[in-house]
Design a protein that fits this description.
Elements lengths: L5 H17 L4 H7 L20 E3 L6 E3 L18 H12 L4 E3 L7 H8 L8 E6 L10 H13 L8 E4 L5 H13 L6 E5 L5 H10 L4 E5 L11 H7 L3 E5 L6 H6 L16 H10 L6 E2 L6 H8 L9 H12 L21 H10 L12
Helix pairs in contact: 3-4, 3-11, 7-8
Length: 369
Amino acid sequence: MTTDDSSTTATRGTTRRRVLQATGGLAVAAAAAGAGTAAAQGRPAAPGPRELITREVPGTGERLPAVGLGTFTTFDTLPDAPTGHIAEVVRRFYEAGGRVVDTSPLYGAAETNTGAALAGFQDRVFLADKIWSTGDFLWDEGHALASLERSMERLARGRPLDVVQVHSLVNIDCVLPMLHAWKAEGRIRAIGVTHHEPAYFDVLADWIERGDIDFVQVHYSVRTRAAEERVLPAAADNGVAVLVNMPLEKGRLHQVVGDREVPGLATEFGAANWAQYFLKWVLGHPAVTAVLPATSNPDHLTQNVGAMRGELPDRATRLRMVRHLEQVPGFDALPTAPWYPGKSYPGLVTRAQSGIRGRSPWWPPVPTA
């Protein structure tokens, strides 16, 4: 699809709208309409949609609350470990009006824990999942299909997943055509591609421009702004929704600002804490559909979801926000700092990493988000 072919763009938008409506689309609007019966059905109640900052999914008419929930590392646990904190994070998220939840089969126990925490209202959220598949040979669909079916079981999903994404572009030449087939068959509602590493952003933009996709998920933050060069413009030009991973830089932004007070300019757009300062900066870009901060701390979740209410900074204010942070020691060095400083998330992935670390002379980066 090319952006200068208006007839192609219109046809694609109409087709996408029909698919979403036929498979249970407009989920957020439906969730808001059903909020009055939530208590009777044992589900958390949700505030009215007018109280939330929402963004439209291009070409569909569907609106999503602007702050979602990521699950990488933070929702991974060891067998028999307590998960009450995860359930509380999800409960607060839903009650605050959050609807977009992103996970992956690569995140250890995250899919299973997400499904358990969503029990009773898992079909009333916008679930984004991923496929990381090579199969036994090129064009082998078996492994990818098994992954999709396993994800559906773990999430106890009663209707198709809202979007399935090619995780970090792995085997995309084979997997993306599979996803198009699954979408046409009604197995999934929408298609996406993801990456978190700026070195791959040009490739990500290429797929936005030629892959006929619905969503892109990309690393974007007040410190990591490379997505502004090609990815975000390509998404805007091609009618592709944008989900943002690592908007808080996996705890590193908070580590940099430490105990400093939020600057006075935050009052101009209603940011009461640093989390809202960072998230509202990302949401200030008009191409962004939703941010996906991840946390296992219910109180941190409450701070995060506060970013989808009130004003958003304009372009000039966003530049001032960056300039303020550039004066903070450690801000420039953030990309080389370890993820989640001062925190520990014992889970299946961490246990596996520890086992390899003890045997390998070379320790690779942590798995991709």
